[in-house]
Design goal:
globular, about 40% helix, about 20% strand, 3 helices, alpha+beta
Amino acid sequence: MNKATKTGRNSMKRRIGVGIWEDMDGNIHWSLNELLEMVELPDTAENRAIVEAMLTKQLKRNCPGVKIIRRDKPDP
């Protein structure tokens, strides 16, 4: 991986919504803990798996070919 790509991945281009953002390379990132907190669900392995599966399904349907990266939060 070259330095430019690594920097782009670690820099937020725009926040799409609570727990979801796009990096400078155009990749979508999400924070499961932020999403669970927003809907007041406990942060458990089961809830994380359900939310991740739902997001993955929607993103693949609406953005075919997009690279999906899950991270706890964007780097500053």
